[in-house]
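Lecture 7 notes: from sequence to structure.

We start with a single chain of 295 residues. Read the sequence below before looking at the structure.
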Amino acid sequence: MRWDQLPRSDNVEDQRGAGPRGLPTGRAGGIGIGTLLVLVVIGWALGINPLEILSQLGGGSQEQSQPAPKDAQTQAPSDQMGQFVSAVLGSTEDQWKQIFARAGKTYEPPTLVMFSGATRSACGFAQSAMGPFYCPIDQKVYLDTAFFQDLERRFRGCEIGSKSCQFAQAYVITHEIGHHVQNLLGILPRVQELQRSMDESDANQLQVRVELQADCLAGIWAHHAEEKWRLIEPGDVEAAMQTASAIGDDRLQRRSQGYVVPDAFTHGSSAQRTQAFMTGLKSGEISSCDTFKSL
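Now the structure, written as tokens:
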């Protein structure tokens, strides 16, 4: 992936090395630390954001639900990983501002929080084992870049050390930005409203549609970024699709428990995630990412 020419974003909040922020000291809303860790492992294995589990169990204390302190630096980090994240984020800002402007809308970019180990968000406790996630309450993306190492080594999302891994990493970031786009378009609030009146199985199926649309929106970013900067190199798309396959619900479930439970899917199968990204990449149009047509 050629990313040197991408614009850098100043909307990066670098908390790496700052130590844990607002973490529980013993019990959180009646749930002990041991239980928290178990929920993190279960959620990650099943492809479920553990924050959703904690919120359903009432596990977030008032302190944990507060956003991170505003003393963190919000600027482009100087190290290579920080520069890469800033570049990918900057390119999303450039492209989504143009896409929104063509539709007569204003794109408000999110902040991306880089952290190490654990931090807190307006959505609750955040730990690296959860993987990257978007919090619609504070409109921030939370990313522990150690996730990229897990993707390479544990899930074999792309060949370890290969340059094409960078495009796979960009896909992960732009998927989360896709959730921000959904939030700005009013899709996430509407989905959450519908889910409150559904049973668990139907709510999960609706969540799959949300995640697949975010994959498609990541593909739209790739389409327009390629047109403007010619950043895609041979092997990049294949690496991103290998990553999409590695974190599909079916593959994660089979890996963790030996069998697949489609009703428990929250992100979509490997094939669905791959197809969704490729749809956005080929079309470049938001209209092609309507995963809610049958609703």
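The beta strands are 12-14, 27-28, 31-32, 73-74, 111-114, 118-121, 124-127, 133-135, 140-143. Keep this in mind for problem set 3.
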